[in-house]
Specification:
heterodimer; A: 256 residues; MetI-like fold; B: alpha/beta; Rossmann fold; four-stranded antiparallel β-sheet; 31% helix
């Protein structure tokens, strides 16, 4: 028992399982206790189950597909733009561009959405580009850091093989770090996923999980809101899991 | 043992090396010649660089591999591309192979792909390249690991892959930064065998290595350079002493009394440096 509160203590898998089970019971107990009394912080499990049922009847799958399609579109564009900017930072004259883009991640969403709304008329494109701008600033930051973290020994190794500077960029930075790119996309995907609710509210006609959650909120249906939150987290974590598996499958040497 | 010194293969003329205005090495000179021994097809040259930590061995290696340009002086190596004897050229990046302490390799290439890449500039046909790679991998005990990535290799396999990568890249000069560091007695013997294979492959092949094991340096090298701070200063390092074990009659002979005296002498110099 003492081991459970000892820092850096290695535990058996059964002990780890017991800890997880304990936390699950604690959450469920907290949730159940919340049902008593006059004011409720969370809806009851029954309300949430009903919420799932209602959402299913309203075509939940179509909305999930719509959200994933929007996310995929934005991620694809963002990855292309971020890679070009990040790789170009290896060229001294282009380095300030990457640094500048990276700093833009401190800009507020409303300001960016406002300017994008002026230049983009189509609502669906606006949704995509708001996500692209946001993800690009964060992904570019991570990619630049990835390039800076390449050990000097790897660059020197390529030089001793007679590689010119462009070959080093191609072999060590681009080809040699493709698995890292996939990993960084996975990490930054959470940003796009988090922004989805806000961005999907721009265009209700396009649907999506963001639209559903906003609609449920308006109706004051807490059961549906929590059910949707659970769905959003599960779908997000599933994408996360798939990308990790994909990285290990495609890049056998990617053993981190 | 009788030997002859032929053309100069490495000529380091009073180089000073430093970073951002700070001098690390000053007035370092090294001259090494191609050695031929009677009754031996290929002798090769083995040069050890000894020095205490932080005395500029790595900086010297960076200069000798062309990764850092000397602030003054020059480094010339024999130009193997011409037929003219004693033809020399100024050292450029890629002329000298380098195997660092971590045995750095391309992480995204298999052993076979690493060898193919090392041969990318060779004008031979694909069949000839494949044959050569297979010969090397067989000779160095790596054939069964040819489809493995560097992260799937043991330390010894990585080191051997790094060595043959540099050899295939047509390098006669190879620098190994502390190749014996952290190795057990069995692996030290394997590295010694690797040294011999490199030297046997071509008479121009030259190994330059650093080590903190003075005995091992005396046993393997035919030329030893001691790098350290000269008396009275800690500002920079230079060559404090050069032992030509060939002239001393100690090269290519079993470790004995003569070697022991050299080791004791070197130890004293290092402690003062």
């Amino acid at each position: 028992m003492k081991n459970l509160i000892k820092p850096f203590q290695e535990l058996k898998s059964t002990s780890r399982g017991t800890i997880m089970l304990g936390w699950l019971i604690a959450i469920l107990t907290f949730w159940t206790l919340n049902m008593f009394g006059t004011s409720h912080m969370f809806p009851t499990p029954t309300q949430v189950i009903h919420g799932f049922g209602d959402l299913w009847a309203e075509g939940l799958v179509v909305h999930i597909v719509s959200s994933i399609a929007l996310c995929a579109h934005a991620v694809f564009l963002s990855v292309i733009i971020s890679l070009v900017i990040a790789y170009s930072t290896a060229i001294p004259i282009m380095k300030p561009v990457g640094t500048f883009i990276s700093k833009l991640r401190y800009l507020p969403l409303t300001g960016i959405a406002f300017y994008l709304a002026i230049i983009i008329n189509d609502a669906r494109s606006l949704q995509v580009w708001v996500l692209v701008v946001f993800m690009t600033t964060f992904l570019t930051t991570s990619l630049i850091q990835m390039i800076q973290d390449i050990p000097k020994e790897e660059l020197d190794h390529a030089k001793t093989l007679g590689c010119n500077r462009w070959e080093i960029l191609w072999e060590v930075v681009i080809k040699g770090r493709l698995d890292y790119v996939l990993e960084l996309v996975r990490q930054n995907l959470a940003i796009v996923w988090m922004m989805l609710v806000t961005v999907e509210s721009i265009l209700a006609a396009a649907g999506g999980m963001g639209f559903l959650i906003k609609n449920s909120d308006k109706l004051g249906d807490n059961g549906r809101v929590i059910a949707l939150q659970i769905i959003i987290v599960v779908v997000g974590l599933s994408l996360d899991f798939i990308i990790t598996k994909l990285r290990k499958l495609i890049f056998r040497y990617s053993n981190y | 043992m009788s030997y002859r010194e032929l053309d100069t293969i490495l000529y380091v003329d009073k180089i000073s090396v430093g970073y951002e205005g700070k001098t690390i090495l000053k007035d370092v000179s090294i001259i090494e010649k191609n050695i031929v021994r009677d009754g031996h097809d290929s002798t090769g040259q083995t040069i050890a660089v000894l020095g205490r930590s932080g005395r500029g061995k790595s900086t010297l290696f960076k200069a000798l591999t062309g990764l850092v340009k000397p602030m003054s002086g020059q480094i010339l190596i024999s130009d193997m591309a011409t037929e003219v004897a004693d033809d020399a050229k100024i050292l450029a990046e890629g002329d000298v192979g380098f195997v660092d302490q971590k045995y750095t390799l391309f992480r995204h290439k298999t052993v076979y792909q690493i060898c193919q890449y090392a041969l990318r500039k060779s004008k031979t046909t694909k069949q000839e390249k494949d044959k050569l790679i297979t010969e090397f991998l067989t000779e160095w005990g790596l054939l069964e690991h040819k489809n493995k990535y560097s992260c799937e290799l043991s330390g010894g396999q990585r080191q051997r892959t790094a060595i043959i990568e540099q050899m295939l890249s047509s390098k006669h000069f190879m620098i190994l930064d502390e190749p014996f560091s952290g190795l057990d007695v069995g692996n030290i013997e394997k590295v010694k065998t690797s040294f011999q294979k490199i030297l046997d492959a071509d008479e121009y092949n030259t190994i330059i290595f650093s080590t903190h094991d003075i005995r091992l340096a005396a046993e393997l090298a035919d030329s030893i350079y001691i790098i350290g701070n000269p008396e009275g200063t800690t500002e920079y390092s230079t060559v404090l002493k050069h032992y030509d074990l060939k002239k001393m009659g100690l090269a290519w002979t079993p470790y004995g009394e003569g070697h022991r005296k050299v080791v004791a002498d070197i130890k004293e110099i290092l402690l003062k440096s």
